[in-house]
Amino acid sequence: MKHYASPLLMGPRPSDDLLALIMHIFTEDEAEVAQYLPPLRPRTAKKVASLSGRSENDVTRVLDNLAFTKFVILAFGEPRKYTIIPLVPGVFEMALLTPDLATRNTWHKTFAELFERLWDKGLLMVEYASNNYPSIRYLPVSGVSKTLYSAWPSDKFAEVLEPYDLFAVGNCQCRVAMQLVGKGCARPLENCVAIGPVAKHIIDRGLMRKADRQEVLEIKRHAEEQGCVSFLTNEVSKRMGTGSCSCCGCCCHAMRSINQLNTPGMISKPHFLPVQDREKCQLCKKCVQICPMGAWAASNGDLQFQTIRCIGCGLCVLACKFGALTLQESRDARPPQDGWLPVLLKLVPVYLTTSVRVWAKRLFL
User: DSSP states of 119-161 as a string?
Assistant: First the structure.
């Protein structure tokens, strides 16, 4: 628990709820081995064996099961090294990601319940999210993007896919988790996509299935028709590829970080924002009903809009049948970074200062 509570892994404070989740993730036998994997210090099975006093074959068996069956730690390189990863993003996504929902069992259900307990209490993100460099961005839905002549190529999902020829699709972890805890909605599950070279590693591990470009576009189109909105990583690298999911405000943990916890730091400011024409508005409240972020609210016979909650998806524009809403370019918008290196160069200083701040706060307060 101390490892996973570390600010180096963006972990929550030690608590009974965190301990319950860790005790569920690891059996006693697995925990005896995994305790020798401290944050950000990958180790070989040989090194862990020497520290634990167990045989290398025994340690390898345990660590491989955690990495390739449970998918709760990471294994890489040659000789193979193992490392623990943050609960989120990390363990949560890896443990629940699957192309086949039939493989989700009572272990996954309990995992989702214990994770949601931590999330609902605000224990996982509140110390970190508002200080993050935004790692994801949301796209305008296709129905409105065709009219946005000032849109960047990175605003249009079809253009983002164009340079790539390898794709993988799987079930959205957030939506699977909410379904497992009995809080899911009726929107489609298979919306999670890996794009480019990164897709091969995910397919090889059995976490997603292979797909072609046309199927991916069809999946995204169908998700939008059901009221989902799509995000991408906040970069446009053609070397490593990228990832995308389409989700809703009631299930997506990225959106819920704003809706539920008021911590918007992880989401990039939108390129476009809705603008209301009051003369055309009939107060039908369709925008209030469709908005996944709760950015629109009706009060005292008028509409109120909270810019900080808006992700610029445009669902409200499509929902308005009176033409009272349009998307207009935001002056605060910044294009995504040109590759992962610039993203990392921005993330690392924020990560280090946040880790020190959280550590000091816990130590002295």
Answer: HHTTTTTTTTGGGSPP-EEEPPPHHHHTT-TT--GGGSHHHHH
Q: Give 294-357 as a DSSP string.
A: --EEEETTEEEE-GGG-----HHHHH-TTS-EEEEE-TT--PPBSSHHHHHHHHHHHHHHHHHH
CATH 3.40.190.120 correct for 269-334: no
Q: Report the chain (365 residues): mean pLDDT per 10 consecutive residues.
A: 94 94 97 97 97 97 96 95 95 92 94 94 71 79 75 80 92 93 91 92 92 94 91 79 89 84 75 92 93 90 89 93 92 79 78 86 83
Tell me, what's the pLDDT at 61? 97
Neighbouring-strand partners of residue 192: 170
What residue spans define the domains of the chain?
A: 2-85, 92-268, 269-334
Q: Count other Cβ atoms within 10 Å, centred on residue 363.
A: 7
For the chain, what percentages of helix, strand and coil (3-state, to nearest 5) are there? 45, 15, 40
Q: Is-cis flag, bond preceding 79, omega within 30?
A: yes
CA distances, 274 to each of 260, 329, 361 (Å): 22, 9, 39
Structure tokens at 77: 């390189």
Q: Residue 207's Cα: distance from chain center in Å? A: 15
The pLDDT of residue 132: 64
In angstroms, what CA-CA distances link 158 with 150, 215, 336? 16, 12, 16
Tell me the CATH class for 2-85. Answer: mainly alpha
Instruction: Please give the DSSP secondary-structure letter assigned to residue 282.
Output: -
The torsion angles phi and psi of 59, rounded to 5 degrees, stand at: -65, -40
Residue 130's pLDDT is: 57
Give me the count of residues in the chain.
365
Q: Quote the DSSP letter at residue 241.
A: -
Task: Give the pLDDT confidence score for residue 249 in this predicted structure.
Answer: 87
